[in-house]
Specification:
Helix content is 72%, strand content 2%. It has 204 residues and is mostly helical. The chain has a two-stranded antiparallel sheet.
Length: 204
């Protein structure tokens, strides 16, 4: 099983540690109980990705994409918006920012990006595991649908985690039913785009 050499992992580790520490300090200073919850979830996910990496040998590029997703997530709940920027809801943070007013939010971009990366992670893991059995997979339509479905499924799990936050923490910035629906749409769009990139970027 191939693994990213340790020297290549060190910058990713330091980058991730730096923004996670900043998120902990920022949440404490703002008294943001919701994001303390999400930081805990992030730490669990980092531990899970460490185990996955040891099993399937994630590429340096994929590891960077994953940690950049983590940064976008942490910034989304903690970075305050300038007064003139349009936003949705009661909290003027990046996650509420209307990039295109009433059309496209920062939150939706992060969802599409994140679960697109998750789709790539699922494809990479499936391909790596099958190589242990001397089977070289090609990105066929069926396997890419399976990978995209897995990516979108993890997106749905994210919505379950957000629902738990709503039930346990007062005054969250999760949003209502319509927001959840658009999150799921964004997840599907990201997963579909990632599957298309995998397919058309594959060289026989």
């Amino acid at each position: 099983m191939s693994q990213v050499p340790q020297p290549r992992l060190l910058p990713i580790f330091l980058f991730t540690a730096a923004y996670m520490l900043s998120a902990v300090v920022g949440s404490a200073m703002q008294g943001n109980k919701e994001f303390i919850f999400y930081i805990t979830v992030m730490l669990i996910l980092i531990a899970v990705m460490t185990v996955v990496h040891r099993r399937v040998g994630l590429t340096t590029g994929l590891l960077w994409l994953l940690t950049l997703w983590g940064l976008a997530h942490m910034a989304g709940g903690l970075v305050l918006l300038p007064d003139s920027w349009p936003y949705n809801g009661d909290q003027a943070v990046l996650y509420s920012w209307w990039i295109i007013p009433q059309k496209l939010k920062y939150d939706q971009i992060v969802h599409a990006y994140g679960f697109g990366v998750t789709t790539w992670l699922c494809w990479h893991s499936l391909r790596s595991i099958m190589r242990d059995y001397a089977v070289e997979l090609k990105p066929t339509l069926g396997l890419l649908v399976l990978s995209a479905a897995a990516g979108a499924g993890f997106g749905a799990l994210n919505e379950v985690i957000e629902f738990i936050a709503v039930l346990t923490i007062p005054n969250t910035n999760v949003g209502g039913y319509e927001n959840t629906g658009w999150d799921l749409v964004a997840n599907l769009v990201g997963a579909t785009v990632a599957a298309a990139i995998i397919r058309f970027g594959h060289h026989s």
